[in-house]
């Protein structure tokens, strides 16, 4: 076994038992039967080791789910998706347990960024699955459905993480596939709009760029029927690219968007961009 792999396997055992913070490098090296010098040849720090373990765990899961979404027939897709998720949790329950606990109170910025990245990758895979399975039928509800599926994933994973009881994966996957279908086909009041989903996906403490706003406006123009709001968006997009209008006119165009439910987030971003 390669030394790096040995360290990751033995450290994972200790992290599951003690937690990330409570486990020292000395304890890891003792558990591996190696020197600290050998540890530092593989990892610069304990934080780097933690991130490597998360990468390994999440890359395996993401790769498996991506393959399932791309290759599984529609009538089996939801079942195979849920089965794979919980099979992974069952197989790696010790590490999954400590990972979830640590996320709740971590101050490791790199860890938070890493988990946020994998969360967005998973969201994109789920969205792809929803659009493939339901198409226009779930057009209004698909962003809510992403959060419903993620809620199922997180909540039911606690059965593996906090309760030492045998779980019938086949029945669980069938049950959650049925629930997801019911929501997708019968839910009628969406809460998470496309604009709200975009807002949630913005990096924390970072401004949305002018280029990103222009792309949002382009998409919105394509979706909307002719209206004052659509004309306002066209003029505002032009103003972002080639400024020529007075501030009073720009302010009035932005105000035209405020009352339109699907343009409120764009109007907020434009107010910040033009500093109103």
From TrEMBL:
Instruction: Keyword check for Ion transport, yes or no.
Output: no
Which InterPro entries does the entry link to?
Homeodomain-like_sf, HTH-type_Tx_Regulator, HTH_TetR
Q: Name one GO molecular function term.
A: DNA binding
The entry's keywords: DNA-binding, Repressor
Start and end of every HTH tetR-type domain?
1-61
Q: Where is the DNA-binding region?
A: 24-43
Source organism superkingdom = Bacteria
Name the Pfam families on file: TetR_N
The name of this protein is TetR/AcrR family transcriptional regulator
């Amino acid at each position: 076994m390669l030394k790096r792999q040995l360290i990751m396997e033995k450290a994972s055992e200790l992290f599951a038992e003690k937690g990330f913070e409570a486990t020292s490098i000395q304890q890891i090296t003792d558990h591996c039967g190696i020197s600290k010098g050998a540890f530092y040849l593989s990892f610069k720090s304990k934080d780097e080791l933690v991130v490597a373990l998360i990468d390994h765990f999440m890359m395996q899961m993401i790769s498996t789910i991506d393959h399932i979404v791309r290759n599984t027939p529609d009538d089996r897709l939801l079942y195979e998706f849920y089965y794979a998720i919980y099979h992974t949790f069952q197989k790696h329950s010790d590490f999954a347990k400590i990972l979830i606990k640590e996320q709740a109170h971590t101050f490791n910025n790199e860890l938070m960024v890493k988990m946020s990245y994998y969360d967005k990758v998973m969201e994109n895979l789920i969205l792809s699955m929803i659009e493939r399975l339901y198409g226009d039928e779930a057009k209004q509800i698909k962003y809510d459905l992403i959060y419903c599926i993620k809620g199922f994933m997180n909540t039911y994973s606690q059965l593996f993480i906090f309760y030492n009881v045998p779980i019938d994966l086949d029945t669980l996957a069938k049950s959650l596939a049925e629930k997801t279908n019911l929501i997708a086909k019968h839910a009628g009041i969406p809460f998470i709009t496309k604009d709200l989903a975009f807002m949630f996906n913005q990096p924390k403490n970072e401004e949305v760029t002018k280029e990103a706003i222009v792309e949002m406006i382009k998409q919105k123009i394509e979706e909307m029927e002719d209206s004052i709001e659509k004309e306002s968006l066209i003029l505002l997009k032009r103003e972002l690219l080639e400024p020529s209008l007075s501030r009073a006119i720009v302010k009035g165009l932005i105000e035209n968007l405020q009352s339109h439910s699907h343009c409120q987030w764009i109007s907020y971003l434009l107010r910040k961009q033009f500093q109103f």
